[in-house]
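Continuing the series of single-chain predictions for the mutant panel. This is the parent chain; the variants come on the following pages.
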Amino acid sequence: MNIYFDNAATTPIRKEVITTISDVMEDCFGNPSSTHAYGRKAKTHIETARKVIAKQINAVPNEIIFTSGGTESDNMILHCAVKDLGVKRIISSPIEHHAILHAMDALDKLLGIKISYVKIDSNGVIDLDDLESLLKNDESKTLVSLMHINNEIGNMLDLVKVGNLCHKYEAFFHTDAVQGIGHFTFDMESLPIDFLSAAAHKFHGPKGVGFSFVRKNSGLQPFIHGGAQERGLRAGTESVHNIVGMCKALELAYENLDIERQKVLEVKTYFIDQITSLFPTVKFNGMCNDLSKSTYTLVNVALPIPKDKSLMLDFHLDLNGIACSKGSACQSGSQSGSHVLKYVRSEQLEDWPSLRFSFSILNSKKEVDYLIQVLKDF
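Parent structure:
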């Protein structure tokens, strides 16, 4: 039996999306910048997708800038905020995605941008009082970048509270919403967010494509130079089939959101019950077992398994056809361990193996039962 419990890393592409992508690749190969009929057809596909995606999150079409995914979107926002908006300081948290953390490090080394980290508690929850203190006590032009949903422990950020706090002190607010778009509704007309990042492969779309939400009249200038694509902000021939595929995936995600969210939530709830029955002393990293404060798609657990035995746990699961993760997929090649768990896991749990199980509409309670049996046999 093969089970995929690593949807926070990437999701399987829906069949309808594959069909859409295939049709576009076959029937619409023109360069969108060409003025002849083939080019105009491709351009129409892109602009239609832009309008549909904007409608899904209640944004204006020209606020949607297509990118290669979340990492490029994050880098684009941070670098352009410094280059074009006069930002001298970036406030973030120590448990952000490395696309943010490494981009901030680069801006610090290259341009001397001041970096501040907001305090978090032992569960990885952002200290809003500390954030306000950081904003209030320094009048430097500031960008706050905090992710909507933590990709390792599932904690959810209150975007309204953070956004209102940022705007109270005239700071820009960017959120990496890679784990949220397609799983939660967004109303960009009312949300106090200036910039947002998204990636298609997190909501059953293709890899290598995503988008940035850039609030109109933001003042951002080109990030990648060359042609005039993407309102001049991001040069390069657009990946038409991927953009249209992302649009189809997002349409389907929001069309079926209520039903699919309930089904995935039931799988997560069942998983929590079953893993707790098997390991009564199991620990949940972050707030992932609090259904009101975490995403319904993810659980990160520390299992009471002896250190010498736990070294074989990943191999045992993989050998039995179960795919999960020790942290984010971006960390899988690193020997340093998860930077997120370093902040939220107590010293007593350092020898316990932590695993992230993340779910989608394709998972079932039967698969959870199989996982539990495999763990019993370990």
